[in-house]
Design a protein that fits this description.
Layout lengths: L12 H15 L4 E5 L4 H11 L5 E6 L2 H12 L3 E6 L8 H10 L5 E5 L1 E2 L4 E2 L2 H11 L2 E5 L11 H4 L3 E5 L11 E5 L1 H8 L12 H9 L12 H17 L1 H22 L4 E2 L12 E4 L6 H11 L5 E3 L8 E4 L8 H22 L1
Helix pairs in contact: 1-9, 4-5, 10-12, 11-12
Length: about 350
């Protein structure tokens, strides 16, 4: 018996290339777009290892846990790394980036996370990109959480390596991702003797075997289900309009912040200023005496369907995260989540008293 998820015909090179082209249109970019066959950590790591080495001096912006990871990868490549860390309840500013350049004029690489879903903040990439262009540094951007929730414009912002994933605001699969690559970034890779080659991490292998060959022969068998799912989610965004999808996320974020304030009980936005709050997810600080992970567990017992999680690591005690992205960027999901949170908070308060 045939099965629609199992008995799939091979995905042709032309079909694969057409999906890359749709992703490029979504990003408004003329750069090469490479779809990578794995979760977004694959191109995130691959892009750093391809372009950074012992001769690199990097400014690594830390506004959450992924920024910390990028610094680790850069150091592992032998780069000299200057971390620019700001509190997780805020965003970094272009003036802070310029100050780092003035202090370290040798910086030639900048790594930045656009939106940190884990901490609920978002950074002003357009303004930072202007500062990076003034410096002439290579600009690497993690836009995995932001794409689909807010504008992501590699060309307009001067981003040389822009990595996206489909699993958050795009409402797609987790097992496929993409990176747009500027000509400057390709040149940096070609000049880097430590860039991965003959490796699953290698972007240069894709360029030489796929792009330079006219995208006529795939380097390996593509993941058909994930590629078809990526195509479907891009088609869905195209059908309703990217601005409509982004507006849903903006409204979900505003409603969550306002609803948490209306609930009372000591819940408050973790990100202090709304302009620094990511539309993909809203983080909330729990009141004193309440453990966030326990509050989330109680809320999920009442309604397992709500997009709710505790903060990761050390933040598990103080942060609640409402993941209103993709299919959950709706008024209904926000109301259900706030209802579950309010009930759980009330019951925990009563049990303490």
């Amino acid at each position: 018996m045939t099965h629609p998820f199992l008995d799939l015909p091979p995905l042709s090179a032309a079909h694969f290339a057409s999906i890359e082209d749709r992703v490029a249109r979504l990003l408004g970019t003329r750069q090469d777009v490479v779809i990578t066959q794995g979760e977004a950590l694959l191109p995130l790591e691959g892009a750093i290892r391809a372009t950074a080495g012992p001769g690199t001096t990097a400014l690594n912006v830390i506004t959450g846990p992924y920024g910390q990871t990028f610094g680790d990868w850069l150091r592992d490549c032998g780069a000299t790394v200057h971390d620019l860390a700001v509190p997780f309840h805020a965003a970094v500013g272009a003036d802070q980036v310029r100050e780092a350049f003035a202090e370290h004029p040798e910086i030639d690489f900048v790594s930045l996370v656009h939106a940190e879903a884990a901490t609920g903040n978002t950074n002003p990439v357009a303004e930072i990109g202007e500062a990076v262009r003034e410096q002439g540094a290579l600009f690497y951007l993690d836009a995995v959480a932001s794409v689909g929730a807010e504008p992501v414009l590699p060309d307009a912002w001067g981003v040389d390596l822009c990595v996206i994933g489909a699993q958050k605001a795009m409402g797609g699969p987790a097992g496929v991702s993409a990176v747009s690559v500027s000509e400057r970034a390709w040149a940096r890779m070609a000049a880097n003797p430590a860039a991965p080659r003959r490796s699953y991490l290698s972007l240069l292998d894709w360029k030489e075997r796929w792009i330079d060959g006219g995208r006529k022969a795939l380097p390996h068998a593509p993941a058909q289900l994930e590629m078809l799912a990526l195509q479907a989610c891009v088609e869905r965004i195209e059908s309703v309009g990217l601005e409509t999808v982004m507006a849903r996320h903006r409204e979900a974020a505003r409603a969550t912040r306002a609803g948490a304030a209306a609930l009372g009980g000591g819940l408050e936005p973790y990100v202090h200023e709304e302009r620094h709050a990511a539309p993909v997810a809203t983080t909330l600080r729990v009141p004193a005496g309440v453990v966030a992970s326990e509050l989330v567990a109680r809320a999920l017992r009442a309604d397992p369907s709500v997009p709710l999680a505790a903060g990761g690591g050390a933040l598990a005690g103080e942060m609640v995260r409402v993941n209103h992205y993709g299919a959950d960027a709706t008024p209904e999901a926000v109301r259900a989540t706030l209802t579950a949170l309010g009930s759980a908070l009330e019951s925990m308060t009563e049990s303490r008293n």
